[in-house]
Amino acid sequence: KKITIINGPNLNLLGKREPTIYGDGTFEDYLKKLKNKYVDIQLEYFQSNIEGEIIDKLHEVGFDYDGVILNAAAYTHTSIGIGDAVKGIETPVVEVHISNIHAREEFRHVSYIAPNAKGVIFGFGLKGYELALQSFL
Ligand code: DQA
Predict the structure, then answer these.
(1) Binding site for substrate, residues?
(2) Catalytic residue chosen out of the listed positions 65, 75, 97, 129
(3) Which secondary-structure segment (H or E) carries 30?
(4) Alpha-carbon gap, residue 53 to 82, rounded angstroms
(5) Which of 10, 86, 101, 102 is the most buried (most CB within 10 A)?
(6) How far apart are CA 89 and CA 84, in angstroms?
(7) Closest by alpha carbon to 133, among 92, 77, 100, 102?
């Protein structure tokens, strides 16, 4: 199976950024473990701080991949463009958030992605990406 993880803005800082909320591990370390555990899956990873690049990546993988795991970070709550891209592609998208967005500020309770996602996983830390991966197996 071919699955892509897409991380949005500021998630390149994982490990350094607000560790009480997002943990102190880097995404690269986590990804290495995930790849070692799921050797049969072609697991790809893309991170961008730029909205249009996330949309371009969704278009690129959105018609011949088996799944997309998308943490659009702050764009989740603002981007109609990313929401439309998720709606427009064929590959199912699972939305992931590291933190429990519903236990945080009100503006994080809104998602432009969720209405067109296969499902949403939030509040389980980095483990959420593995749970999303398992949902495609
Ligand atoms: C996040 C939650 C968002 O509200 C926030 O803007 C992020 C990360 C999460 O994974 O918990 O950058 O998507």
Answers:
(1) 71, 77, 84, 98-99, 108
(2) 97
(3) helix 27-37
(4) 10
(5) 86
(6) 9
(7) 92
